[in-house]
Amino acid sequence: MDEKNNEIKQLKEQLFYSPAHADDVLIDADKAQADEFCEGYKAFLDSAKTEREAADEIVRMAEENGFRRFVKHTLYAPGDKVYFPIHGKAVILTVFGRRELSDGVRIAAAHIDSPRLDLKPNPVYEKQEIGYFKTHYYGGIRKYQWPTIPLAMHGVIMRADGEKITVSIGEDEGDPRLVISDLLPHLGAEQSKRTLAEGIKGEELNVIIGSRKYPGCESDGVRLAIMKLLNDKYGITERDFQSAEIEIVPAGKACDVGLDRSLVGAYGQDDRVCAYTAVMAALDTEAPEYTCLSVLTDKEEIGSEGNTGLESRFLAQFIEDLCAAEDADVNDVLRASECLSADVNAAFDPTFYDVFEKNNASYLNKGVVITKYTGARGKSGTNDASAEYMGKIRGILDADSILWQTGELGKVDAGGGGTVAKYISHLGVNTVDLGVPVLSMHSPFEITAKYDVFMAYQAFCAFFKAE
Ligand code: MN
Ligand code: MN
If 0-12 CB within 10 Å is exposed, 13-18 middle and 19+ buried, where does residue 203 land? Predict the structure, then answer.
């Protein structure tokens, strides 16, 4: 009987698949390295709360690591490293490979915008001697999550005199924070009858900015006092908000979560977790076989729109510019190219298990997640990666013993979503989604596992160096 049991056990091991937990397969040195890697990751999150800040920080990191600004018609040598900024909100890092461009390039594409509240063009108002900013939310937020948490404001204001003012208030130790109010439970009976989606409505996401009046002012005294304060500090008037982009984001720094410090908690990990890991992979790649691009894009959260989103031609244009020096045909290059669309997936949440299909969900600590398709209502709106390309990526990850799993975004018809994958595959590039599982995605405080973050970095490194 023992023999039979042994045979069954062996057969199961040989034939069944279930994803492994990092603690069961990683060696101690890798675990320590993952923790160390995430110290840099947390610092990046703190310095990059908006797409503009992320783009600036990535350029800074690139320059520090020997990247130079791309110059069209320059013939670059294998191992040369360049960066190319797109309107201050997106960046492409390139490490030139040993092969010619017409053999294709390797692309890792992550987005650096995150869901948030944007100020309206005429944001400042006062009601019953409280000063407010009016906001219009950006991306898929759950509105009820935003009141009663400390908020900060980040962005730029273009003054009438042409000067660009950079604003960041609410992050430093001594800074004031901003906040959106909510009802006390004692008076919340009517509000509690609203659906969760309507618990706080869009026009209720009003940010408190002050409550003291300009001395002697009879009406709009708080508004005047706030505008005087902003005028003294930045030289701006209300009119200047019309040529501004100010984002309200959760205040505070990234931190370890869990008594065991196994997790990272922070705002904006979708998708700066893949942005950071893809950037670090580019920084650490030396003279690869194929030319490698880390593409850090904007506007993914609202459908990749605009001239800094991947529905625009900025990536194709850049590859055309690369082709110019080598006299390569851009269509040949794109058709031969491969891409990891680097974006997060929903980690299985045991508290809300019934929206997941547990055999096809991704899990914290089970490594980087490959998502063959996204979309909704029967895969609509997805890039559905081919078996051949899945097989190739699988081979690359397995060759480097990188812990990976597959993941679907929830049960069939439970919801859905999309990534930049379909815009890159439109160009003819073989593409699949690969990224980090996230708990509480799109919330003001998202959660990732340190092991998974490190595996994403390793996956991009393996992809870039593969021959
Ligand atoms: Mn994303
Ligand atoms: Mn997202």
Answer: exposed
What residues pack around ion ligand 1 (CB closer than 5 A)? 270-271, 343
Q: SS3 for 184? A: coil
- CA 419 to CA 111: how far, in whole Å? 9
Residue 322 Cα to ligand 2 middle (Å): 30
Question: DSSP E strands: which ranges in 149-290?
Answer: 151-158, 164-169, 179-180, 207-210, 244-250, 255-257, 263-266
Model pLDDT, residue 2? 85
CA of 159 to the centre of ligand 1 (A): 32
Q: Which tokens go with 313?
A: 């031609």
Quote the CA–CA distance of 338 and 350 in Å, as a whole number.
35
Return the ligand number nearest the Cα of 112: 1
What pLDDT sits at residue 383? 87
pLDDT for res 413 = 86
- H or E stretch including 112? none
Could you count the other beta carbons within 10 Å of the beta carbon of residue 328? 17
- The per-residue pLDDT for range 335-362, each reduced to its tens digit, is 999 999 999 999 999 999 999 999 999 9
- In angstroms, what is the span from residue 113 Cα to ligand 2's centroid? 9
CA torsion angle 44 48 51 52 (round to 10): -120
Residue bearing tokens 């509240």: 117
**pLDDT digits over 437-454, tens only?**
999 999 999 999 999 999
Q: pTM of the entire structure?
A: 0.97
Interval between CA 7 and ligand 1 midpoint (Å): 44
Alpha carbon of 271 to ligand 2 centroid (Å): 7
Q: What domains are defined for the chain? A: 18-114+267-465 (3.40.630.10), 116-250 (2.30.250.10)
How many whole angstroms from 221 Cα to the centroid of ligand 2? 40
